[in-house]
Amino acid sequence: MNCLKLKIGIIGAGRIGRLHAENIATNIREVEVKSIADIYMNESLEKWAYSIGINHVYKDHRKIIEDREIDAVLICSPTDTHSKFIIEAAQAGKHIFCEKPIDFDVKRIEEALNAVEKAKVKLQIGFNRRFDHNFKRIKEHIENGKIGDVHILRITSRDPAPPPIEYVRVSGGIFLDMTIHDFDMARYLTGSEVVEVYAIGETLIDPSIKQYDDVDTAIVTLKFENGAIGTIDNSRKAVYGYDQRVEVFGSKGCLIVGNDKPSTVEIYSEDWVYSEKPKYFFLERYRESYIDEIRSFIDAILEDREPEVTGLDGLKPVLIGLAAKKSLETGMPVKVERV
Amino acid sequence: MNCLKLKIGIIGAGRIGRLHAENIATNIREVEVKSIADIYMNESLEKWAYSIGINHVYKDHRKIIEDREIDAVLICSPTDTHSKFIIEAAQAGKHIFCEKPIDFDVKRIEEALNAVEKAKVKLQIGFNRRFDHNFKRIKEHIENGKIGDVHILRITSRDPAPPPIEYVRVSGGIFLDMTIHDFDMARYLTGSEVVEVYAIGETLIDPSIKQYDDVDTAIVTLKFENGAIGTIDNSRKAVYGYDQRVEVFGSKGCLIVGNDKPSTVEIYSEDWVYSEKPKYFFLERYRESYIDEIRSFIDAILEDREPEVTGLDGLKPVLIGLAAKKSLETGMPVKVERV
Amino acid sequence: MNCLKLKIGIIGAGRIGRLHAENIATNIREVEVKSIADIYMNESLEKWAYSIGINHVYKDHRKIIEDREIDAVLICSPTDTHSKFIIEAAQAGKHIFCEKPIDFDVKRIEEALNAVEKAKVKLQIGFNRRFDHNFKRIKEHIENGKIGDVHILRITSRDPAPPPIEYVRVSGGIFLDMTIHDFDMARYLTGSEVVEVYAIGETLIDPSIKQYDDVDTAIVTLKFENGAIGTIDNSRKAVYGYDQRVEVFGSKGCLIVGNDKPSTVEIYSEDWVYSEKPKYFFLERYRESYIDEIRSFIDAILEDREPEVTGLDGLKPVLIGLAAKKSLETGMPVKVERV
Amino acid sequence: MNCLKLKIGIIGAGRIGRLHAENIATNIREVEVKSIADIYMNESLEKWAYSIGINHVYKDHRKIIEDREIDAVLICSPTDTHSKFIIEAAQAGKHIFCEKPIDFDVKRIEEALNAVEKAKVKLQIGFNRRFDHNFKRIKEHIENGKIGDVHILRITSRDPAPPPIEYVRVSGGIFLDMTIHDFDMARYLTGSEVVEVYAIGETLIDPSIKQYDDVDTAIVTLKFENGAIGTIDNSRKAVYGYDQRVEVFGSKGCLIVGNDKPSTVEIYSEDWVYSEKPKYFFLERYRESYIDEIRSFIDAILEDREPEVTGLDGLKPVLIGLAAKKSLETGMPVKVERV
């Protein structure tokens, strides 16, 4: 093949930025990560970048935006910079992959989406779970009519350990930080919009987060446009690991997807049968999905088609999350804002 | 053993009355079912009664109430007769096993419970699921501290097929007829009272039940006194059979209990791995529990201890069910009435 | 129903004789156990017999054989009396249910079968596992062609604890006492005869059984008439309980059946996921099958059809067991004797 | 890191050679594949080599052997060249990774091992399954005493489809081609040597392989030095995919490891519960293990320690396979030759 590789710049060299860089380096041959920028760029990050073949390393993300050779950018910087960087990248004619959430402010999200639309560039949002082998399979079965009409959606989504308290402070709260993935999954699987939510929550794990009006244990009830209903339960701390299960019940059957386990070994002993806990960490559980979402983004560019996770898919879960937040505050069900 | 058998009379010879009669005849040797009464008593019922050794058959339940030899009665007649019969039996000094629910009217329940208290007889309510081998095991593990403090309770409870529409009309609605078992399970497993509920529901299976302001698909969110939260999802029609699962998540782990299956056979074929559906029918799934609840009632009498399911245990789920009903009507969360 | 009940006498009031008596008393209404005989009959056994409604209790089994009212006998006495009692009962025109094995001596088995044939009475052998819900299901799937032609049969059959050493002494050895059930299962499931066996075994659990030339851990390889091959593995001591699994692999798929468990509860904890061990004891695991085999025997009499487990089905596994024994002794594969 | 990468040459660019090359390119940074040789080298292979960064491409493997810069070779050529290439590479002072089996001829294997010993280079044999996440875990549990002493080993190993008939012709037969992996697993898991085998087999899938005196369905019984016994069953065609299961039963418990599945999705329908078949293809199932075995080989070189799979580990399964072959021919158990 003689054609040139797609050239990509990454903005933000934190955990997720580095993950994408390494995934591309080892798994996606048609792409070259030309450059990476991080406001906290330092020697050790530089070394890491060079070691995986990224030859340009900046503090200033503008160096990437202004580079004519760059076809697309991955925005992996903190949430409060997302909408600004989307607008800049769109105006520079770059295709954009942006981590979730786009922003906590709906107006700023809309400005970013408008800029993208005007520039006619691709924008994909980083809801990686849509690319998980388990959830992808469920989605296919629903679309193939395996369970008829969807009646009830159940999502269990629990983290192995709560994030640092400093993170909680700026995370936007559990519904915009953690449940947002479940809201996306809810829309993705049912193929319908959430119209109303009711949220309850408690601080059962770490009382210190109460100061930020946040909770660590929550249940959110959902009403969908198509008549289906749903329930999500979240905890910031499942001692047995990362618990990610989904169940979709319909008129013709039920789809249930459990956790992946590190091995299938069972130990039959005098007292119990032991088997392994779910994979502990999200990077382990969703490893493949991070690769596949980037591959899908690249394909959307190369084939000039709509990305699998659009800007609207980025906006909607924020609206649901904001409604859930309001519901928790008021103790009342809250309608999700329309766009 | 030379001692006399405990003598029992059964009021109501419908499906559940006959089930108890047969269970006692074949499984509980220390008890004799002396008599059975049913307002619709007929020749075929009489024959059945004689065939299993019940020698006295009446239309009028008073014959049982007034029989000095009778130690205890099982009330298996329609719900609207329960409180009346409880009062009569209590006043006659009989111990009482009464099918759930006691009544839909809280005042009448309270009158019945007062009569029982005054007469100092035993009263056990027919929440048989507490005696199911799976749920009993979960309860033990919770009490032994296996999962620490309870944070989240999830109940899935789905029937294989909706009841006849005439039954729906008088059933008191899905929350008092079907979910009431789940409300009891919620109290039983958490060991805490439900203080507030929020219910949503839809008519996705059979629109004809709308005329009775009932739904066939529902989600109820629960807040418990001890801070735990819970969610119940119900459907009147799971095509794959009777779906009865519970999950209790706590600070130290999670308990999950699935359905019983008729066999453990798996078929590995060219396209799928096939295994059996859950047991289809509640009498099949809960067969043992019906025997065990009566055994427990008899033991409570013989050992002169409090029954495992008390009159208060009969009242509380009705209060939760009434709150859920009001929540569905008003679209608002509703506090459960205190007693 | 006005018709008279089938009248049965039981010879042998050991564990299995009492089990059948109680199963009939509580589960099989069309049968009356009129009498029971045991050479060691005593007061406590008599009391037990009366308590479940058996009104005639003897030391001498001839009292049952000579009783004109008796339609059928269950032979539950020690193995070395089986063939003699079969002959006596047959000559007296009684139908016969006989526990396995008929005998360890092929000639005596043949004499017994001849007597049965001459008397034209029914004879059913107590291979109860054929009536187990799991194995019955597998058999149906095989007959319905779900896995095509059978290629490989795998049986795992392990006891929770070795029998007392005095029992080992007279048991006929592991192949005639324990594996005999698996040989029957092999014939039942494949629908083909075993033509050659090769057996290896070791004394890994209790060296004291070596004095009786027996082993406690064994693997038997089978060649079937239809070309299929099979392997059985046995242990006298599985610390995790009674382990009874079967796998049948064929040209179109594979059937796998696992153990029954007391509950479906799983405990997710910080270190492992715990679930329950298989049912520990054969009476617990095969409870229903013991009832069903008697029911089937009764039906064979009432419907005048061939029993589901014939005399030949009783003879064949003994021939296989004797071949396995010889193989263990000689270290060579051994052909199974034809009849 | 400034240190030079380990330089490797690959001999044989067939499926497995290319697999290792790609695995190293994308996953093992401390290694550079400098060159690859294949007697059938062609333009398309060259292009592929360059695309993954292999800059030297030869027809003649001697070019690699004679290259002073090369630290180690991977021998991925046909089996009949293995021992010759091992000797050449050893004499040139290269460390060697060689695909299994080393040879079908014991004398030639011994010559190769002698050459390796004399040259004091590392030799690792490609029994990749030892590096499989499931089997590795079982091994750890055994070594940690989780099941006490090993009594019974059961291996099920079935391919999804038979190899081409031309391959069967030169494969050495099912025991040296397919079961050899199971023989290795048997030694690896029990930590004991196989001293005697008994093999039976049939041609149930494709009669045409009979011309090569081969079978497609087989059971092999094993006796181990430490008293344990084992059974392996093989089929060339499991319609449901690649079936790789192991069970190790011991004095304190039992370890069971099942197949990996593409997803955990279950579909509950009106007739069955459907779940996915095992992964279909060995490259898919054992993907990680191929990477890990090379990583282990590289580590053995860098840390100057004995490889995890030694030359003796390469020889022993061939001896067992030859004994199994002889057993099938003679119909008798055969002792495994000692070395």
From TrEMBL, chains A, B, C, D:
GO terms for molecular function: nucleotide binding; oxidoreductase activity. InterPro entries: Gfo/Idh/MocA-like_OxRdtase_N, GFO_IDH_MocA-like_dom, Myo_inos_IolG, NAD(P)-bd_dom_sf. The keyword Oxidoreductase applies. The keyword Oxidoreductase applies. Keywords: Oxidoreductase. SUPFAM superfamilies: Glyceraldehyde-3-phosphate dehydrogenase-like, C-terminal domain, NAD(P)-binding Rossmann-fold domains. Residues 6-127 form the Gfo/Idh/MocA-like oxidoreductase N-terminal domain. Gene3D superfamilies: Dihydrodipicolinate Reductase, domain 2 (3.30.360.10), NAD(P)-binding Rossmann-like Domain (3.40.50.720). Residues 135-255 form the GFO/IDH/MocA-like oxidoreductase domain. It comes from the Bacteria. Belongs to the Gfo/Idh/MocA family. This is Myo-inositol 2-dehydrogenase. It comes from Caldicoprobacter faecalis.
